[in-house]
Amino acid sequence: MGGDDGKLVALNAKSEIALLATDPKRRWIDNVALHPDGAFAWSAGKTAFVRSGKSQEKSFEAPSTVGGLAFAPKGLRVAVAHYNGATLWFPNMAAKPEFLEWAGSHLGATFSPDNKFLVTTMHEPALHGWRLADNRHMRNERLSRPGAFDVVERWRQGACDLGRRHGDRLAVRQQGWADGQGARDAGAAAGARLGGRLPPEAGHHGGRFTATARC
């Protein structure tokens, strides 16, 4: 967990708190991500950090404020979401981070379990994806309602369901992503999108959705 005091802490089942890291500038910890092997990542402002038992703390300066972090399912690779795209960063390699471009503010990221796709959530009601083999764009259509939102993902082999929580509604997009065939490059047409139908709404109530869970 990250706090506004610049501290990153771990909380166990016994409610015991352990300090993992402290931002040297005492900046607000904006994002946290965990890897199955025990590595963890966090961000403060434009800087993303990674620490694991096999290496020292590493850092990466994003082009803008970090909007979200995600570990790839295999290897130590981190997706850093930020303004105008996302960056794939290998903390333990000297290789230059790989920039995936798409205009707009990207606020979250998730890899598919097979490591073939990366999907980001955006400030506008939209999701954007890349097929990592060739970085082809996979654009999901926008919702009609404005405002930032987040995503709950359930990846399946060959397809994925993405639940989008925004305001008082939860919408689910099922198997609506092309595999890159017919997807138009960002440079070919601004605002290109895949599919033409609005996603079904899975739930609605009078208040605001504040949390969702996967099953």
What does this structure look like?
By secondary structure, the chain is mainly beta. It is 0% helix and 48% strand. The protein contains no helices and 16 strands. The strands form four sheets. The protein has a six-stranded antiparallel β-sheet, with no helix packed on it. The chain is globular and about 45 Å long. The relative contact order is 0.10. The C terminus is likely disordered.
In short:
The chain has 215 residues and is mainly β. It has no helices and 16 strands.
Q: How are the SSEs placed, and which strands pair?
A:
Blueprint: E1 7-11, E2 17-22, E3 31-34, E4 40-44, E5 47-52, E6 55-61, E7 68-71, E8 78-89, E9 98-111, E10 117-122, E11 127-131, E12 136-139, E13 150-156, E14 159-166, E15 169-174, E16 201-204
Antiparallel strand pairs: 1-2, 3-4, 4-5, 5-6, 7-8, 8-9, 9-10, 10-11, 11-12, 13-14, 14-15, 15-16
Shape: globular
Q: Helicity range of the residues?
A: under 10%
Low-confidence stretches: 142-149, 166-215
**Which H/E pattern describes the elements?**
EEEEEEEEEEEEEEEE
Can you give the mean pLDDT? 74
Q: How many individual β-strands? A: 16
Q: Termini separation (Å)?
A: 23 Å
Portion in strands: over 45%
Compute the number of helices.
Answer: 0
Strand order of the largest sheet: 7-8-9-10-11-12
Largest sheet: 6 strands, antiparallel
Structural class by secondary-structure content: mainly beta
Gyration radius, rounded: 17 Å
